[in-house]
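Tutorial, part two.
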Amino acid sequence: MLEHIRPQRRTVIVGAGVGALAAAVAACSSKDETATAESSSSPAASSSAAAAPGAALAKTADVPVGSGVIVDDVVITQATAGDFKGFSTVCPHAGCNVNKITDGKIICPCHDSEFNLDGSVAKGPAKKPLETKAVTVQGESIVAG
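Running the prediction step on this input gives:
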């Protein structure tokens, strides 16, 4: 008797489409939450405080030549002696925070983008450089602004 009760073909197709859409939305939202959780656990994201203009970020002696440091939301590099540059920690590819500087490269953990010490892209998928942040040297300190 149940053999004669079958849903219409249109009902099955529409139901499958709605189910696929719901699964895609759920996958996207859980991926975003994972990326946020990963980026918030990185050392670069450990502080949500933005560097106020004039605020001391680091000592010049703390930024190695040919490398850099990450302080709050600023990457400070010193490619050559005395040439300090500042960049945003936010990767322009997907908005994750870069979290380390290794072998003269600034690394984004989300998709393995790498940036040179001047902020330019060394390896994608990022296509744009890191955003520049103004830093100046005052005495032995590197300050925002």
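The longest strand covers residues 67-71. In part three we will examine how such features are distributed along the chain.
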